[in-house]
Design brief:
Blueprint lengths: L1 H53 L19 H5 L37 E7 L2 E7 L5 H12 L6 E2 L2 E3 L5 E4 L28 E4 L11 E4 L11 E7 L1 H10 L1 E2 L3 E4 L4 E9 L4
Antiparallel strand pairs: 1-2, 1-11, 2-8, 3-11, 4-5, 4-10, 5-7, 6-7, 6-8, 9-10
Length: 273
């Protein structure tokens, strides 16, 4: 009888040890799952923050709401396909449908040195630009072509940002921030690019996705060198300051409360030297 009682006691002890081992294993699995979930959550937040801080949009178009732009964003864009083209030659591959029908810019015999002026006649006044052909010939070629073909006429400047970065974005006939000319082209002039007040640069949705959307910088802005600077504002910063002072909807990043539309864009050759 004593032997039977001892056997039962040993069996009970073995069962308790097995249950304890199973509980410990389950606890370890729960801990590993929690750690993995935490890492994934941190990674998602980090990626979202990087995207928020570095995009000035073209077709997917997210404008930064903070000044903490990532300087590493220029790495892929700096190895631009434009470098493989012969001087005086540009590529404008056709992509998504144009928001306003327009012919492609010239692809050969592209001007390489002649600077140009552009007079943006807007509903809030005239904003004058000088385009830097020598540093961004394919960009200037496209912009001139669009202006001369009246692509910009009657188009709204659809986005104003007054927090973190300070830009007015224009160039989409649809006014939605998703439209373009139906073609794209490569980035230029990114090495060491900065965006002080008075900069004119291309908006994009990633490396080499330039189209028709561009932005006007009205106050010194910190951005990764990922957006082709192709000109300067020579007059009209006071107009941009007035628009910025009126704010946007939503506040900080959205449609300007003081509406601005480009009535027409007039291009002329500028004196060299």
């Amino acid at each position: 009888m004593a032997s039977n009682k001892r056997g039962k006691e040993l069996a009970r002890m073995r069962a308790e040890r097995q249950a304890a081992r199973r509980a410990a294993a389950a606890a370890r699995r729960r801990q590993r799952t929690a750690v993995v979930a935490s890492v994934v959550a941190v990674a998602v937040v980090a990626v979202a923050a990087i995207l928020l801080a570095t995009k000035v949009g073209g077709s997917t178009k997210t404008i930064a709401a903070a000044a903490a732009a990532s300087p590493s964003a220029s790495t892929a864009a700096s190895a631009s396909p434009a470098a493989s083209l012969a001087p005086g030659t540009c590529a404008y591959p056709v992509g998504t449908p144009a928001s306003r029908k327009v012919a492609l810019p010239p692809k050969a015999g592209v001007e390489q040195t002649q600077p140009y002026t552009v007079s943006l006649k807007t509903t809030q006044g005239v904003i004058a630009l000088k385009l830097d052909t020598a540093k961004a010939p394919c960009t200037v070629n496209s912009f001139r072509s669009l202006a001369m073909k009246k692509f910009f006429d009657g188009t709204p400047c659809h986005r104003l940002t007054t927090q973190g970065i300070y830009v007015l974005q224009c160039g989409d006939p649809s006014g939605k921030g998703t439209g373009g000319p139906g073609y794209s082209f490569a980035d230029e002039n990114l090495k060491g690019a900065t965006y002080p007040a008075g900069t004119v640069a291309m908006a994009n949705s990633g490396p080499d996705t330039n189209g028709s959307q561009f932005f006007l910088v009205y106050k010194d802005t910190q951005l990764a060198p990922s957006y082709t600077p192709f000109g300067t504002i020579t007059s009209g910063l006071d107009i941009l300051a007035k628009v910025a002072a009126a704010g946007s909807t939503p506040a900080g990043d959205g449609k300007p409360k003081l509406p601005v539309s480009i009535q027409t864009a007039i291009v002329a050759a500028a004196p060299q030297g």
